[in-house]
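Thread: Newbie trying to understand structure tokens

Hi all, I'm a second-year student working on a class project, and my supervisor (Dr. K.) asked me to get a predicted structure for one chain before our next meeting. I've only ever worked with sequences, so writing a 3D structure as a token string is new to me. If someone could post the tokens and maybe explain what I'm looking at, I'd be very grateful. Here's the chain:
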Amino acid sequence: MLASVDTRSVSPVFVGRADELVALDDALARADAGEPQALLIGGEAGVGKTRLVEEFASAASARGAAVALGGCVEIGADGLPFAPFSTALRALRRALPAELTAAAAGQEGELARLLPELGEPGTGRHDEEGMARLFELTARLLERVAADRTVVLALEDLHWADASTRHLLSYLLRTLRTGRLVVLATYRADDIHRRHPLRPLLAELDRLRTVRRLELARLTREEVGRQIAGILAQEPDPAQVDAIFRRSDGNAFFVEELAVAGTQGCCAGLTDSLRDLLLVRVEALPEAGQRMARIVAEGGSTVEYRLLAAVAGLAEDDLIAALRAAVNANLLLATPDGDGYRFRHSLVREAVSDDLLPGERSRLNRRYAEALEADPTLVPADERVMRLAGYWCHAHDPAKALPAALDASVAARSRRAYSEQLHFLERAMELWESAPDEVRARLRPADYTEAYPAPQPDAPLRYLDLMAEAAVAGRYCGERERALKITKRALRLLADEDEPLRSAWFWMQRSRLVRALGRGSGREELAEAQELVRGLPPGEVHAEVLTHAANWSMVHAPGPGAFEAAERAVEYARMVGARDTELDARQILGILMVASGDTEAGLAELAEVKDRALAEDIPMVAVNAYVNLPSELEAVGRSREAMAVLERGVAFARRHGLPDSQAWIWGNLAESLLSVGRWDDAARAFVDPGRMGLAVGAKGVHAILRAELAVARGDFTEAHEQLAVARDCFGSHHHTAQHHIPLARHSIALAIAEGRPEEAADLLERALDAGFPPGAQRYVWPLLITAIPAATTGDLLARIRAASRRLPTGAAVWQAHALWLRAELLRAEGHPALEEWTETVTAFEHLERPYDLARTRHRLAEALLTGGTDDDGDRENDRDREDDRDRENDRDRAAELLRLAHAVATHLGARPLADAVDLLARRARPAVALALPQCSADPVEALGLTSREHDVLRLVAAGRTNRQIAERLFISPKTASVHVSNILAKLGVSGRGEAAAVAHRVGLSPTEEQAGTEGRALT
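---
Reply by user tm_fold:
Sure, no problem. This is what the structure looks like when written as tokens:
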């Protein structure tokens, strides 16, 4: 055995990297101030990334930060799922046990998938949001742990990271917004070839302004000299520095190897091959030490001592002697926990592994696998299955590798590492034919699969079972192209088989994938599935197919067929006990009932589904109900009720870590807030796509709502940007009423606002040509009203009128829209339509839609100021109105309407409407000059009153009776009386006099002149 040498291979002096340390120190300072930081550190192998991280970690620890290090683990070609995060979270748990326990409270079951020490992983069902749920909870865990103390999370060797680790890191760096947290990640830049899986992630993160990227350059000659001096503990000879600098080209690790080799007298005989340089120390070891290096190299990034002992088969003294020789030669290092060994640098491990003969490599892997099978406690429990699969695969033993790969796929699925599940399933499919028949015959679907819901209880596992599991895993992890290829291949295999249920199931999966990839609507694929199950006895697959068909019809072509499919799906699901499918189908049924006019029954059905899902702990069904129930409440104009449900839904989705569902809920909440006139709150409800990692659909919905607000506020640049985002999200294939009708509406509104009438007319024609499916009235009424100015021909007006006749008016808000459209059509044809506008305003008076009310008041004021009657009926209408008001009163009434409309437009920031009101007031003739009084600070918020109650209280303070209030505000005396009663109750006063006194105290009451001439603004 070689004696230990006196020289060090690692310089005690940290050389260079001054700029990088400044950047890292700056990130730490910003994190200390509560601003999360993210940095990527790249550089070629051996350039000094790990040393830089170690130096920074030491400095951060000295400043009181908790440092958690984790490295990606390479086992052959397989990375362990979430390995760096699991390692880092363990370190964080050791450093801050109380804080991490408190931060994980209530979510231990889900977070145990990353940190098994928290308990048993949860048993919740797997779905497309499962991975995002785990990621969201992890992000919130880190934010909570880092709330009061700075935390540095360092992840090394991203070039070996598994797909799930890459996805989680991407999510964290996009969504972290609070906490004293620094996230570092290192990777080998020279390993990132064009097809390397890390390359797309680096490109994505480069686009984030919150992520800084540091590229480590090689050392200069001066820095190499200082490094050598540190290694030798003396000033080196300049010629030696020149030679080492020339050969190492400034690579820090190669500098170390060359410096040490020179002290051992090996330097002169070395070739220019870097591989030979890396192996020179190995070859200098005794045979037992060299053998130990080869065993460790094939075992993985880190190998446990007990596992090494089992594989090496040496007596303990001989084993320790061999390990000591490798450690003294600075080849191996003991792991920080003292339980195993790793190479000092991965470059050396790779060189040793590459030097193995093919038979030698497979034999070593077999010995690792056999040792691990004999004693599973040799490695951590959360790594055992994955490592065993890797060892058996590289041992080239299909009989052992197939069940091991399947076990690994199950373990990956339990951790929501669906990318790794797909990887191991694809490996199992590759091994399927080469595995012995007797091995395959022992495998059972219940042990390995759960995607296909109707396997025979005692039947052996089939290749098609693996394909079904892989297709679903691909959908869950976002690998839809791979999943689609698998489904197509499965259907080709089934073409000659008499298995209609299994074929129908694969057609259903294909439909979902086609839609997700934007390759079509998925209707043809669903039709195939429906045809295959037609006439078959009820079953889980049958119920699922019917549910998907009903859902497709509800979205794309609602009608009797959708209703029938939903009812049958509920019936079949109940018969076979498929509870999740039953509740999904009942939601579809409830939505269809509301759309068909059976509003109360439909809303009751949706509420019942929500309550049942909560009671039975079915989170995904519950969160869908939190999206669908308030959406239908909003559809029928019950925005306040919708908002109450949505606020509970946001809390539920946040608690369960459902970021995409949370984004849908926030979108619905923003829509309701827009309706009730809380526009600033709506703007705050819009979700930052980076914060939530929005799915395409949710991102598109938020973009449409942002566009609506931007058009209403006159921010046309923002409107263009958001409409472009929405078009990108929904594309040409996504022809659903809930998306394309609002998109068309706001595109038309923007074209009109910007003075592009031809484009607006073209957009209108296209919308009318596309037609409107049944149940789309909530979107169609606003579209038709918006599009009236774009109807530049009588034909377009006629088409709008014809389209409106087919729309139901079962809800009060739809009735109000019908009145509004009728008035707009008459106005477009040159009729003032005073009575129609009066009816429209009255209808909106009973709805809490302040913006729509302001717009219709503006139109009514216009009708009053332009004469208010049709030319052919002046005399008759004058007689009808002679006891109501004269022309001067019409102007007074118009002035009051304009004042109210202007107040709302100003409060909402609806600049185009405010400008239109202003323009009308200034253009009114003869000799009309409208003065819009300047209001003091709005007391509505202080008194807790609605906008309408604010107007009523002002008139109460002026001494008006209920009838006078009704006349002034154009409402019925009964409605005025109800408003007064509500005001008295809210203010806690007993009579009108006390209410007037309160109004005076807050500066709400009018001046004496206003009291006498309230609303008169004409001279």
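A couple of things are worth pointing out once you decode it. The chain has a mean pLDDT of 86. The beta strands are 37-43, 66-71, 74-75, 78-79, 151-156, 181-188, 211-215, 303-304, 332-334, 340-343. Feel free to ask follow-ups in this thread.
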